[in-house]
Structures are given as C-alpha cells and as structure tokens.
Amino acid sequence: xxxxxxxxxxxxxxxxxxxxxxxxxxxxxxxxxxxxxxxxxxxxxxxxxxxxxxxxxxxxxxxxxxxxxxxxxxxxxxxxxxxxxxxxxxxxxxxxxxxxxxxxxxxxxxxxxxxxxxxxxxxxxxx
Length: 127
Known about the structure:
It is a single chain. The chain is of the alpha/beta class. The protein has a single domain (about 5-125), classed as Response regulator (Rossmann fold), CATH 3.40.50.2300. It contains five helices and five strands; from the N terminus they run βαβαβαβαβα. It has helices at about 15-25, 35-45, 60-70, 85-95, 105-120, and strands spanning about 5-10, 30, 50-55, 75-80, 100. It has a five-stranded parallel β-sheet, with helices on both faces. The longest helix has 12 residues, at about 105-120. The protein is globular and about 35 Å long. It starts with a strand and ends in a 9-residue tail after the last helix.
C-alpha cells in the first residue's frame, strides 16, 4: 500500500526533526522552512496532508494558509502554534485550517490528528 505524503512547513529545525521522528516510518515526508516555500510547493505537488507552523519568517502560516486555500481547496492542513490563545486557533480554522496542535506537542496527539485528517473521505481531500 502506498504511503500517504505529508508536507511539513516549520522554520524550527527541532520541530521538523520531532515530526520526522514521529511520522517518517509510516509516511513520505517533505519539508519546507516557511509559508512562501509551502505555497510554491503546493503549486507543483499534491501532498495528502500539510502540517504548518503559524509563526514563521517570510510568510507566516496564516497568510500561507489563505494562499494555499486559493490553489488547493481540499488538502487537509494541520496548523501548529506555540500560542495558547484560542483566538489564533479560531482564526486559523476560519481561514480554512482543518485542525491545529499547540506546541509542545505529544507524539500521541500528533498521531491522532494526522490519522483523523488522513481518514477523511477521499472526495473531501481532492484538489
């Protein structure tokens, strides 16, 4: 069975490495460092899921989310935030995020969110 593909977008090496350790055995992973790179990646590629930080240089995750939703309406996007504020999470959901995680995150919570988003009916994940 083909592994699902996940794009991880975070400017922090530690976060990318943590997600790699959690997910690499069961998923094909690609990495970018900021929102602008994520938008460019999604213009050319079709991952099954995007995991993206909110606070990044060049283009933050919320701005990237808006751009991505214009070109890939149905790709699930899991936002990661260091903010405890529910306002930021609510804003991400309003802009089209599928769900969010707060840092620091636990392995089990990452798995739960990823599995849930990838189990959405295929028609809801078409681009």
